[in-house]
Amino acid sequence: MVRVIIPDRTVKITNSEKAGEYLKGIGVIYERWGTRVIDPENSGSDQILESYKEEIEQLKKEGGYTTADVIDINEKTPGLEAMLEKFRAEHTHNEDEVRFTISGRGIFHIHPEGGDVVAIEVEGGDLIRVPRGTKHWFDLCEDRHIRAIRLFQDISGWTPYYTNSGKDRNYEPICLGPSYIKPGNVRK
Ligand SMILES: [Fe+2]
Predict the structure, then answer these.
(1) How far does the centroid of ligand 1 lie from the alpha carbon of residue 184, in Å?
(2) Total Cβ atoms within 10 A of residue 42
(3) CATH match of 3-170 with 2.60.120.10
(4) How far away, in angstroms, is 135 Cα from ligand 1 center?
(5) 76, 78, 72: which is closest to 102 by C-alpha?
(6) pLDDT tens across 37-80, in order?
(7) Which pLDDT tens digit goes with each residue over 100-157?
(8) Could you state, in order of their start, the residue ranges of all structural domains in the chain?
(9) What is the rounded radius of gyration, in angstroms, for the C-alpha atoms of the chain?
(10) Residue 156 C-alpha to ligand 1 middle, in angstroms?
(11) What is the distance in angstroms between the CA of the first residue and the CA of the last residue of the chain?
């Protein structure tokens, strides 16, 4: 379930439908596809892509995306901290940033031109499309784990262009949803 927060106005939207409407107003597309993969942690990438084949094909048609893959980011990812440092700095791309979360969580910050910064917390089942040219940054939640399908118009276009505005430093990546609990682990 998506959570939208406008930190400068202390507004919080936890209803998916309302969150989607708000995001549409700033050009970001949100859809709830729901969770379908039985074992999202251990299923192979091909299996995951196959599970959402229809949605992916539809999205490719709508947005001109040509490729889809599955990305895993977690504590075991080599160079995790360096990777996150790049994600956390405000940037744009020459193509849409399309992410469908399979499991785990993450938080996007969107900085619309002349508008309030919006934090979007996503979890398994949430699709987000950030249009090309939109200033944004991304972080993991405290459980530092996300698995997501990515779609690209042209994989070479997904270069980050950093704004160096420093705006990203004014917002704490606070996630509100329940922490991901690994099977067998007990929530403290
Ligand atoms: Fe990005």
Answers:
(1) 34
(2) 8
(3) yes
(4) 8
(5) 72
(6) 778 888 999 999 999 999 999 999 999 999 999 999 999 999 99
(7) 999 999 999 999 999 999 999 999 999 999 999 999 999 999 989 999 999 999 877 6
(8) 3-170
(9) 16
(10) 13
(11) 23
